[in-house]
Amino acid sequence: MTTASPRRNTRKALGGVVFYALLAVVLIPFLFVFWYMITTSLKSPQDLTASTFRWFFTPTLDNYAQVFQQTDFAQFAMNSLLVGLGSVAIALVLGLPAAYAIARYQAPKLALIILSSRITPGVTFLIPLFIIFSGLGWVDTYRALIIAHLLITLPMVTWLMIGFFEELPQEIIDSARVDGASAIRTFLQVILPITRGGIAAAAILAFIFSWNHFMFSVVLAGRTTRTLPVAVFEFMSYGQINWGAICAAATVMTIPVVVMGLFAQRNIVQGLAGGAVKG
């Protein structure tokens, strides 16, 4: 017993070293990208165009000032917020009942169709949507962007929530029936409160994907409805790429998503873990 204990401790310590080594391998590339983006946003044009990479430099906020002075960045942020919240709200209204029906009546083919719509490249829908919205006079409107972003948020909410609803014990539904609750009342007053963690996780992830999406906004939006990814794109031209301003705009755009993820990480982890368990 005395001999086994040191071996067990050694094995445990070795497992911890391996775990943190693998964690570092995964995290370092992601952290490097964020570090490079932030440091580039704080560099002057002389530092950015130097022949060698400058690890040490005098930070400046000129790039951030340029972002807010040359673009209507606050309006772009408000546009992204309105489009994200609108598309997520509609996705929840439509996606939650759809996910519950698919899980309740075991329709894997429908789930596969939803998944295929999620992984289909957005450019596939872009031209038909542009033709339809042009005919309706909806180009450069919030409703066009919200409907387009439903192609991002609705499949994600539905697909994620199918796993949560599949995990619900049948006894809960049977008990509600015994108490005289209708199918709609059971869904609204019993099922949704139980799965609120999963709903929060699905809503947050859908909003983040909508917030970061670029393609629909660059084609369907106009000057008054452009979103933040388009604001970053505006610092790229045929003859020049302003890397300092691009990284400054990208940093400002990333901050709300990071803050949201930090505050909601418990709901996201618990929600995804709950929906990932099968059987």
UniProtKB/TrEMBL annotation:
Record-annotated membrane-spanning stretches: 17-38, 81-103, 110-133, 145-165, 186-211, 243-264
An example Gene Ontology biological process: transmembrane transport
Database matches in PROSITE patterns: ABC_TM1
Tagged with keyword Calcium: no
Pfam families membership: BPD_transp_1
One cellular component term from this protein's GO annotations in UniProt: plasma membrane
Key word Chaperone present: no
Localization: Cell membrane
Topology within the bilayer: Multi-pass membrane protein
CDD domains (alphabetical): TM_PBP2
Gene3D superfamilies recorded: MetI-like
Swiss-Prot/TrEMBL keywords: Cell membrane, Membrane, Sugar transport, Transmembrane, Transmembrane helix, Transport
Record-annotated ABC transmembrane type-1 domain positions: 77-264
Family of this protein: Belongs to the binding-protein-dependent transport system permease family.
PANTHER family from the UniProt entry: INNER MEMBRANE ABC TRANSPORTER PERMEASE PROTEIN YCJP, MALTOSE TRANSPORT SYSTEM PERMEASE-RELATED
Protein name stated in the entry: Multiple sugar transport system permease protein
Source organism of this protein record: Microbacterium pseudoresistens
